[in-house]
Amino acid sequence: MIERFYLRNNFSFEKVDLEFQNGLILFTGSSGAGKSVLLNAILSTIGQKEVYSEIAEVTFDRTLNLEEFGIDSDEITVFKQMKKGRLRFFINSQNIPKKSVSEIGKLFITHLNPREVVEFESEYILEILDSMGNYRDLINSYKSEFEKYENLKYKISKIESDISILSEREDFVKFEIERIEKVAPEDGEDEELQLTKKRLSKKEKIEEYISESETIFEKRRTVLEVFDLMGFEKEVSEIEDFFEHLKARFEEIIDELSELDEVDVEELLDRIEKISDLKTKYGSIHEALLYVEERKLELQKVSELRKELVELELEKEAISAELQQLGLEISEKRKEQSPNFRKNLDENLELLNLGVSQLYNKRVSFHKNGIDFISLSIENTPVLKLSYGEQNRVRLAILTLKTVFGNGSGTLFLDEVDANLSGDESMRVAKVLKKLSKGYQIFAISHQPQLTSQADQHFVVFKNSGKSGVIELDSKKSRAEEIARMVGGNFEEANNFAMKLLEL
Length: 504
Description:
With 504 residues, this protein is of the alpha/beta class. It is built from 16 helices and 15 strands.
């Protein structure tokens, strides 16, 4: 619950420092005193309204789990709003963007306003309906299967996206692989081809030089005699080996040149051109071969993804059938529980003088809450077609039901819940709010003495010299005087009436 609210230099209030209890908390005061400004200032500090103050703080009396938002948890949780030049928001001294404050605030307070009517939504009603029955295991099984189903949907969507991206270039990749494999290049082949081309162009010149070099071998004996006569026996042996090696190499070169006679020059030049094209496109033969391997892996991945997609689709189909069956079982349980829901809701509606309810259950494709879509009518009128005042009272009836069966709790803010109501209607609303306050801390502005008399905590807002102020009425006498002011007319009669209301 909200334990404390502190405000300084709001356009209506200079300073406010209030401590709150559990239960029904009401604010009264003459028109224009600043009641709405005060409540909206509290809501603004939690990011739900836009009423800016120099400083405003809302303190919750317990640790709120904020770790998922990256906010450190303390024994108490403090929301702070500061406006010095620019507007800033803090939670537990951490600077937080307003949008995040608004999202976090909605987790811990409920604000009944005409723009966000969640209480009439199918999901909200189903949650209460299910809390009234004894089929929680069935619900848990369904939710577990639905989580698997959602995970499968995500995986399938991801794989389909990957396949789509890869498929767009599949034909091109196959063409590129075929083109490279048709050439069938080998690492280092380009150097060998260029060497062969060079030898072909120099073949006649090489043969001519070899022929002219034959005279060297004719003078071989003369050269060796020179070194022998000089007594250089070691060098004689080395020179002899040199001539033998040279002769052998010449013979090898002659053999290699003779092999060139079998080379088809046109084929050689064509091969060089094809290899050159691959090198131009891929950088080198090695890169071209690497490209083939990588693209084959890519095609293999597409094939594996398609196979995986088929398997996942079959698994999804099986889970879909299971969800449909579980959904039908849950739907039957809800059908059995509907009269109990309507009976308890109608008890609250009767207190609020709103007539009886009709609950319509339409079976739809399975979703996170089953296969049911619930809609609610009052006296055969869809709830969204009721007046704003009637809608608010129906919402109170539903919230009360949630408090009793669904462990509804938290802090509730009501916008003019008893405006334009008769005394009898106001007392009916008061009785429902009193029931509701067992689970909720309720903040409301009261326009009627009946509701005001049921408050667990009563504040009066006043205006003095153009500035608003607020004080807590903590005695029966002061509360009776305020209620008498609201009643009007003869003070003694009004005061007697107020005392009787306070005793109810």
